[in-house]
Amino acid sequence: MGFTGVRMGAVWGAIFVVLGTISVSRAQLSPTFYNQTCPNVTAIVSSVIQSAFQTDIRIGASLIRLHFHDCFVQGCDASLLLNNSATIVSEQSAPANNNSIRGLDVVNNIKTALESACPNTVSCADILAIAANVSVTLASGQGWTVQLGRRDSLTANLSLATSNLPSPFFTLAQLKQNFSFQGLDTTDLVALSGAHTFGRAQCRFFDNRLYNFNNTGNPDPTLNTTLLATLRQLCPQSDVGANTNLTNLDLTTPNIFDNKYYSNLQQNDGLLNSDQVLFSTSGADTIAIVNNFSANQTAFFEAFAASIIKMGNINPLTGSQGEIRKQCNLVNGASSSSGLIMGGGVESQADDLVSSI
């Protein structure tokens, strides 16, 4: 999250322009890519994340979000991780990332451990893909076979980061258009939205549903009235300071990766507009998918795995493209020994989510 004093819905509505459909790359990624060069890569990533989980139960949701926010901007190439420099304008200052993205320190710790074990071998883009899988399994979800072999970008793209990431205020039509632009279909949309089965969100990204939904002067009629009362206590209209108060995305099992997100939607307990529209949009084809995932957790797990693998194949750099960064936040020519250099206020411990995922 990161908008201050500006409604995201209006901003995204103004700047989101579909330029054409991005086709998912058919680059030959492989789950065995590091078998010879860094055979313990997954164990190393898991160890660092497990350590982070001891003090930050929300880190899993944050790491999945990094993978998503990376892939939706010029492909899965770790461009999101680059800081401002003489030649880079960081994506971290985009509205969907500024004062919002979390877990950059954990990614840096993973990279440090991998550089010690397997120097100049594992890309930061692959770290994000592995970290997403590890985060799900640590939260009692079902993992998947991670495709590997991505390389890291030499550039970032603030403009695409500003325009390509979906808003929590989006309608279903806008969400479908946004995902289609990335080569992802309606099932992918509903499945990947299920990542909201854990994590948190700030009041300012759903309080429009509490008091003046769509300028009606009334709350969102699709919001469960019991939840409405609870959220109004958390996010009082008269208290601007409450904008950053946090609440769980999943009311039922907030730290577990399961299918309760979908049963919440059936009870009108979706927190964000971009959640609830999957079930409450009249006649929508997403309703049947929500019902299926709510009734069958295995179906959700399988669909989520297929969709996140598909997302991870969005335009990766492979072969001799890009580079293997020595530090995830800097291209190699700008590397230093100072570790992760945070841009001005780009990482906040206040929330997990701004986009629809």
Automatic annotation (TrEMBL):
<feature type="binding site" description="axial binding residue">
    <location>
        <position position="196"/>
    </location>
    <ligand>
        <name>heme b</name>
    </ligand>
</feature>
<keyword id="KW-1015">Disulfide bond</keyword>
<dbReference type="GO" id="GO:0005576">
    <property type="term" value="C:extracellular region"/>
</dbReference>
<keyword id="KW-0964">Secreted</keyword>
<feature type="domain" description="Plant heme peroxidase family profile">
    <location>
        <begin position="28"/>
        <end position="332"/>
    </location>
</feature>
<feature type="disulfide bond">
    <location>
        <begin position="124"/>
        <end position="328"/>
    </location>
</feature>
<feature type="disulfide bond">
    <location>
        <begin position="203"/>
        <end position="235"/>
    </location>
</feature>
<feature type="binding site">
    <location>
        <position position="166"/>
    </location>
    <ligand>
        <name>substrate</name>
    </ligand>
</feature>
<feature type="binding site">
    <location>
        <position position="253"/>
    </location>
    <ligand>
        <name>Ca(2+) 2</name>
    </ligand>
</feature>
<feature type="binding site">
    <location>
        <position position="79"/>
    </location>
    <ligand>
        <name>Ca(2+) 1</name>
    </ligand>
</feature>
<feature type="binding site">
    <location>
        <position position="91"/>
    </location>
    <ligand>
        <name>Ca(2+) 1</name>
    </ligand>
</feature>
<keyword id="KW-0560">Oxidoreductase</keyword>
<keyword id="KW-0479">Metal-binding</keyword>
<dbReference type="GO" id="GO:0042744">
    <property type="term" value="P:hydrogen peroxide catabolic process"/>
</dbReference>
<keyword id="KW-0349">Heme</keyword>
<feature type="signal peptide">
    <location>
        <begin position="1"/>
        <end position="27"/>
    </location>
</feature>
<dbReference type="InterPro" id="IPR010255">
    <property type="entry name" value="Haem_peroxidase_sf"/>
</dbReference>
<keyword id="KW-0376">Hydrogen peroxide</keyword>
<feature type="binding site">
    <location>
        <position position="75"/>
    </location>
    <ligand>
        <name>Ca(2+) 1</name>
    </ligand>
</feature>
<dbReference type="GO" id="GO:0046872">
    <property type="term" value="F:metal ion binding"/>
</dbReference>
<feature type="binding site">
    <location>
        <position position="258"/>
    </location>
    <ligand>
        <name>Ca(2+) 2</name>
    </ligand>
</feature>
<feature type="disulfide bond">
    <location>
        <begin position="38"/>
        <end position="118"/>
    </location>
</feature>
<feature type="binding site">
    <location>
        <position position="250"/>
    </location>
    <ligand>
        <name>Ca(2+) 2</name>
    </ligand>
</feature>
<keyword id="KW-0106">Calcium</keyword>
<dbReference type="Pfam" id="PF00141">
    <property type="entry name" value="peroxidase"/>
</dbReference>
<feature type="disulfide bond">
    <location>
        <begin position="71"/>
        <end position="76"/>
    </location>
</feature>
<dbReference type="GO" id="GO:0020037">
    <property type="term" value="F:heme binding"/>
</dbReference>
<keyword id="KW-0408">Iron</keyword>
<keyword id="KW-0732">Signal</keyword>
<feature type="binding site">
    <location>
        <position position="73"/>
    </location>
    <ligand>
        <name>Ca(2+) 1</name>
    </ligand>
</feature>
<dbReference type="InterPro" id="IPR033905">
    <property type="entry name" value="Secretory_peroxidase"/>
</dbReference>
<feature type="binding site">
    <location>
        <position position="77"/>
    </location>
    <ligand>
        <name>Ca(2+) 1</name>
    </ligand>
</feature>
<comment type="similarity">
    <text>Belongs to the peroxidase family. Classical plant (class III) peroxidase subfamily.</text>
</comment>
<dbReference type="InterPro" id="IPR019794">
    <property type="entry name" value="Peroxidases_AS"/>
</dbReference>
<keyword id="KW-0575">Peroxidase</keyword>
<dbReference type="InterPro" id="IPR000823">
    <property type="entry name" value="Peroxidase_pln"/>
</dbReference>
<dbReference type="InterPro" id="IPR002016">
    <property type="entry name" value="Haem_peroxidase"/>
</dbReference>
<comment type="similarity">
    <text>Belongs to the peroxidase family. Ascorbate peroxidase subfamily.</text>
</comment>
<feature type="binding site">
    <location>
        <position position="197"/>
    </location>
    <ligand>
        <name>Ca(2+) 2</name>
    </ligand>
</feature>
<feature type="active site" description="Proton acceptor">
    <location>
        <position position="69"/>
    </location>
</feature>
<comment type="function">
    <text>Removal of H(2)O(2), oxidation of toxic reductants, biosynthesis and degradation of lignin, suberization, auxin catabolism, response to environmental stresses such as wounding, pathogen attack and oxidative stress. These functions might be dependent on each isozyme/isoform in each plant tissue.</text>
</comment>
<dbReference type="GO" id="GO:0006979">
    <property type="term" value="P:response to oxidative stress"/>
</dbReference>
